[in-house]
Amino acid sequence: MWETIVIQPFVNVLLLINSLVHNFGVSIILFTILIRLLTHPLTVQQFKATQKMQSLQDDPRYKKMQTKYKNDKDRLAQEQMKLYKELGINPLGSCLPTLIQLPIILGLYQSVTRAMAASPTELFRLEQIIYPRLINAANLLPLENRFLWMDLGQPERVAIFGLSIPLLAILVVATTFLQSKLLQPPTSANDQGAMISKSMSIYMPILMGFMAYSLASGLAIYFLTSNIFGIFQYAILGRANWANLFPFLKKKDEEKDKDKGKAEIVDATAEDVAESEEESEEDPMEETEPDKTGKKPTVMSKKKRPKRKKRK
Amino acid sequence: MKKSHVLLIAIFAGLTLILSACVPGPRVTGSPGIALTDEMAIVAYGNFVYSLDVTSGSVNWHYPEDSNNQVVFYAPPLVTDDFVYIGDLANNFHKLDRETGKVIWTFSGARGYYIGQAAEADGTVYAPSNDGSLYAIDANGELLWEFKTGHYLWSQPQISGNRIYIGSMDHFVYAISASGEEIWSTDLQGAVVGSPLISEDGSKLYAGSLAEQLVALNATNGETLWTFDTEASVWGTSILVDGTLYFADSGGNIYALEAENGDPIWQTEYAGKVVGGLTAISDGLVLATEEGVVKAFNYDGTPKWEATLDGEIFQAPAANNEYLVAGTINGDNLIYGFNLTGVQLWSTTPEK
Fold first, then answer.
1. Which of B217, B223, B297, B312 could share a disulfide with B205, CB 3.0–4.6 Å?
2. Are A120 and B20 a contacting pair at CB < 8 A?
């Protein structure tokens, strides 16, 4: 089933690309980009859902219910579901695209492995799943295993000054680190999500690097391409958090925020500040009554509110 | 260490294990490589080379003494009067004492691992490697020369007079001098997995390829003498008996041709994919299919006997004058011993 639905079509597309470009290294790169492009809408959907979930955690009602019902899990779940419904959030919204992408990514990995058949047993199994109307197996097999300085069926090493350097593994470590750093959301130090994200940026590069170091270089090329594509993808979607890599950007942003805050306070009248103080004392869980004009008052998130200055 | 850290490490370690499991073994998968003498079956599979008693399947010795996960054997061993030659997946080629299994020397000069069976003549051993090179190694384990081809070498070199013939996965058959110089090369339009077969008088070579052809070449200059189109790719080596050439394809067909001109004598369909080629026994030929069936035929194409094993078979069975040994993967047992009438005598998976 898995073989027929995922592996076989993937392998044939990969071999078809190879029959056009006649270079297996380039084929792996193009095939990885193609699959990542096809799954791009899912990635966008996942980003949007994640963003919604993150903004939900800043919602005062959400925070309030966490403390209010911390001893009543059922009630907490009910209230959370209500809030999800009200804000139009699908709690599985960020998981579903990931779940759909996972088998595709696993299939991509397996098809690259399968196409690099490096023994009679593996090559025979590869020949058996080729669509004969699409691909001329006799001309194509086995695939050319040389790409740049690499033997795609072997772990990659490059000799520099007599030393055997795993250049590709180093690049995989660097790009995995970059990717996970760029994905880290700007959250407080005590946030558990941020802690996990921080840990990921340490462990993930090490593990990916180990795999790139020990497995065939064709797979390391796939890891590298996938990472670089991911970085571009996050950048294009505006989800790359460059301040995690370049701290001076964070300072600039903070200064901007400060300036913005100051300007708002300067512009705000004393009445506004007083109103703001009252609002902050209101119970966010209580429903707000419509004002006399019939409009619902907007509850500003704490972040957006101007900071109160202590009266001397 | 925090709980979340431990959990993350466990998740990533699990993922690494799952992804690594997608590439079984160090880098490739294979099936048991088998060679037979009158008394023993030398089997190379996984982390060991085993010497088995051919009558009972019991283990005489294994090499190395202790398991090393980085060292994996799939290549069929070459067994001579005194020695066993075998290459591994860690790019090493070993010479072992045939009676004790003790290593005499190890050659580590190749850039690729070994899948193909070596050949030996006058003390020089010729080891084909996956780095595309044929290595000529002297009796002391020193490299004499290296002959480079364009792709993997999976077929066993064939030696006739002062020449070595080898088929390469780069689609060419090469004739090489005893000093390692190319004499000629001929493009077969498809990868050559099985070993070329030399005719009795040494004047012709027969080689099958993935181009769905069997080709006869002039051994002197490599010119094509005749071509026979098959119904599927030809993976294994042919056999030649009394002027008739027998071979099988991966689509379930056996062919008998006039070796002189390639005229068909008979063809039979038997439903089974043959990867390893045919093996000659005293009064017929034997093949093994990927589906795990060992079948014996008379030379006129009529079936003699068959045995169905649990597992898949990717190499031709090995035979001597009394016994036949076949190796499977993904089955109950690894090695099966038969007599030549198809009666199974033993089966075993040697203990590690």
1. B217
2. no
A-chain residues within 8 Å CB-CB of B235?
120, 124
Say which CATH number the domain at B61 has.
2.130.10.10
Chain B residue set in contact with A, beta carbons under 8 Å: 2, 4-5, 8-9, 12-13, 15-16, 19-20, 22-23, 27-31, 74, 111-112, 115, 130-131, 151-152, 154, 169, 189-191, 193, 209-212, 233, 235, 250, 273, 275, 290, 314, 329
Whether the predicted pLDDT of A127 surpasses 60: yes
Please indicate, yes or no, whether the overall pTM of this predicted structure exceeds 0.80: no
Alpha-carbon separation of residue B94 from B64, B73, B79, B148, B176 (angstroms): 10, 11, 12, 21, 23
Q: Nearest chain B Cα to A217, which residue?
A: B27
Cα–Cα distance between A6 and A38 in angstroms, integer? 14
User: Which one of A124, A195, A219 would you mutate to disrupt binding with B, by most B Cβ within 10 Å of its Cβ?
Assistant: A124
**B12, B31, B169 member nearest A142 (Cβ):** B169
Bigger pLDDT: A59 or B292?
B292
Read off the pLDDT of residues A190-231 as tens digits, 9 standing for 90 and up.
555 566 667 777 788 888 888 888 888 888 998 899 899 988
Q: Give A25→chain B minimum CA distance, Å.
A: 16
The whole domain housing B75 covers 3-348
Q: Report the pLDDT value the prediction gives residue A292, as an integer from 0 to 100.
A: 42
What are the structural domain ranges in chain A?
1-144, 147-245, 247-281
Work out how many domains chain B is built from and give that number.
Answer: 1
